[in-house]
Amino acid sequence: MRSFMLFMKENLSVGLLLFALFLGAGNIIFPPLLGQQAGENIAVAMLGFLATGVGLPLLAIVAVAKAGGDLQVLANRVNPVFGVMFTSIVYLAIGPFFAMPRTGSVSYEIGIAPLLPEGFTHHSVSLFITSVLFFAFILYLSLNPSKLVDRIGKILTPALLIVILLLAIKSFITPMGQAQQAVGSYVISPFAEGFVQGYLTMDVLGALVFGIVILQALKDKGMTNTKQQINTTIFAGVIAAIGLAFVYISLSYIGNTSVESIGTFDNGGSIIAQSVKVLFGHFGSIILAIIILLACISTAVGLLTANAQYFHRLLPKIPYKVFLYIFTFFSLAITNVGLTKITNASLPVLLVIYPLAIVLMLLSLLDHFFKGGAIVYISALIPTFFVSLYDGFKEVAITLPFYERMLKAFPFYEQNLGWLIPASIGAMIGYIIYLSKRP
Fold first, then answer.
1. Among 33, 171, 290, 351, which residue has the least CB neighbours within 10 Å?
2. SS (H, E, C) 111-145
3. Percent of residues in the chain assigned helix, strand, coil, to nearest 5
4. Domain extents in the chain
5. Closest of 21, 19, 45 to residue 31, by C-alpha
6. Closest C-alpha to 373, from 422, 424, 437
7. Of 420, 365, 423, 419, residue with least CA distance to 391
8. Tell me, what's the pLDDT at 262?
9. Fold type of domain 2-348
10. DSSP type of residue 108
11. How far apart are the C-alpha atoms of 74 and 67, rounded to whole Å?
């Protein structure tokens, strides 16, 4: 019994670590916006959001665990060159290029700026000072990745959960109002809109990246058995999925009931900021600052550690700590261009690579049916890229009429899910080719 309790305690700490790595600023600011805009269709919209924000990341954790915690192992099934290129792009996108700077920028704009005196005009200076302190602390936590489980899984995550739990309980006991009418795409296709909004969390990409962090943490704790590593990682994925579902549902409910009290906003950060003031009065901004800072710190540490570990393995002559310093300073610089510019720059890249990551992950879970046949992966990913690339073009106002007319023929194109049918057909064609070539 004692050994079982010890096993559960250690595995739970790994699960809490994974949950904390997932739960960044984006995971907190997007659900309230969905809640406001989905209105009376919140239940259906949330199902779509949970599919991409919880369900697919859990499947991605399983896929990466079976691949030894390595995204590149999955991507190499397509082609070794593709494996290096795609993996590097994913790591950089959710690391120093976009997601890490976003954690620093959100920490300031939602966690720190509301606490500054009214009329404060030197925001660029305070942003710089805040970001320097923020990334210095992130660097400190990342210098010794063997202590990640103790520092985050056993300390930061429980504190984060307690604060979110207080916010959720208060919102359920004293709701701010009733759900309003749905707006925009949530009126006609709430599930599809919620599904696409789940992209913004980057959770699937995070799941593919964080596998290497979890694997290294397990090795540092003396767990060398491969089967045990896989089982523990999957268990951690389940814990993280439960935690994320709780956070998303709670925060979307806050947004859904907030309109009568605070009005409507076009970003979730403002919604949650105003909501906590209504729910907690003068202490609202302090509570929000704690939530944002804890969430951003844990995610930034995971992203920085994962990136440094991956690129050190890719370029072993460059020490792990050198990559830590490079990515930290790079993220610090980008943070100071501001949250809006970071978000706008990330969307085109995200629209291109996210469908590719989903298709790669789903096919890897079915890999035993075609024994790693590269033709299946290639046949599915080419049409996926064909569609998702244009989604990226549209985001930067590049329009190609002939290209667009072809894509409009695909089902779900208007819901930004036009890649689903081409990817499925491509996979089936690839499987038929695989079967025809089998001895």
1. 290
2. HHHHHCCCCCCCHHHHHHHHHHHHHHHHHHHHCCH
3. 85, 0, 15
4. 2-348, 366-439
5. 45
6. 437
7. 419
8. 87
9. Amino acid/polyamine transporter I (1.20.1740)
10. I
11. 7
Q: What is the pLDDT of residue 66?
A: 80
Rounded distance, CA 239 to CA 242, Å? 5
Find tokens 């659900």 and name the residue: 31
Separation in Å, CA 34 to CA 48, 109, 242, 316, 327: 11, 20, 19, 43, 32
Q: C-alpha distances in angstroms, 439 versus 371, 435, 436?
A: 13, 9, 8
d(CA 208, CA 74): 9
Q: Residue 30 has which token pair?
A: 């997007």
Report the candidate in 236, 205, 237, 216 with the shortest Cα–Cα distance to residue 71.
205
Which residue has 């790595």 as its token pair? 21
Q: How confident is the model at residue 111, as a pLDDT?
A: 79
Query: Rounded distance, CA 351 to CA 398, Å?
Result: 14
Residues listed for the chain: 439
pLDDT along the chain (439 residues), means of 10: 56 77 78 92 94 90 80 90 93 90 85 76 84 93 67 64 80 86 90 86 84 73 77 86 90 90 82 83 78 80 88 93 95 87 80 91 90 92 93 82 85 82 95 87
| Cβ–Cβ < 8 Å for 91, 310 | yes
Q: What's the N-to-C CA distance of the chain in angstroms?
A: 52
pTM over 0.70: yes
Question: How far apart (Å, rounded) are the C-alpha atoms in residues 231 and 191?
Answer: 32
Cβ atoms 253, 35 nearer than 8 A: yes
173: left (phi over 0), alpha (psi -120 to 50) or beta: alpha
Residue at 141: amino acid letter: L
Using CA atoms of 281, 285, 290, 294 in order, give the dihedral in degrees to the nearest 10: 130
**What is the C-alpha to C-alpha distance for residues 21 and 266, in angstroms, rounded to an integer?**
26
Of 146, 272, 142, nearest to 221 (Cα)? 146
pLDDT attached to residue 341: 79
Are residues 47 and 332 in contact, defined by beta-carbon separation less than 8 angstroms? no
Q: Copy the structure tokens of residue 87.
A: 């993996």
